[in-house]
Every structure is written in C-alpha cells, then in structure tokens.
Write a structure and sequence with these properties.
By secondary structure, the chain is an all-alpha fold. The protein contains 2 helices and no strands.
Length: about 100
C-alpha cells in the first residue's frame, strides 16, 4: 500500500508543477502581448515610450528583489517558499 501512496504523492506533485508552469507560461505570454500593444500605441511618442521603459525597469527590480528574498542563490537548497535555487543544464550551477 505504501507504493500506491508514494505514487499518488508523486503524481500530485507532478500535477502541481505542470499547473504552475502553465500559469507562468500564460502570464509571460500575456505580459509580452500587452507590452507589444503598449509599444505599438506609443511608437511616435518618446515620452510615453520612456514611461514604459521606466515601468519595466521598476517591475524588473521588484521581481528580482522577490526572487532574491525567496531563494538561496546558487546553492540548490530549498528557499523559504520551498523552491530550489537556480540551476543550469544537467544540474550545474549558473555562472556568477
């Protein structure tokens, strides 16, 4: 019976990861579509383009700060949110 419980847990974990990845992919697509539309609308307005750039930089910094708070950089250990540190192909650590 333990094998079945193990399988069910592994399967539930897999389903959760697939769901999370799908959500992340969908969010990225929406972000890029929205950004493209904003740039298209502002293409002849340098002030508005600069405002888009400034907002992107602020958003990028907010995201980078959140990632830094919630991961253990380069260690491969679990961070506070249960996520693993960033790893490259074949489990290698990314260059610093």
């Amino acid at each position: 019976m333990a094998r079945r419980d193990d399988f069910e847990k592994v399967f539930a974990d897999l389903e959760a990861e697939v769901s999370k990845n799908t959500t992340v992919d969908g969010s990225a697509i929406l972000l890029l579509d929205t950004l493209a539309a904003e740039i298209e609308e502002a293409k002849n307005d340098p002030v508005r383009i600069q405002a888009i750039v400034d907002k992107m930089r602020a958003d990028n910094q907010t995201l980078a700060d959140a990632v830094s708070r919630n991961t253990t950089a380069g260690s491969g250990e679990q961070g506070p949110q249960g996520e693993q540190g960033e790893q490259g192909p074949q489990g290698e650590q990314p260059p610093v």
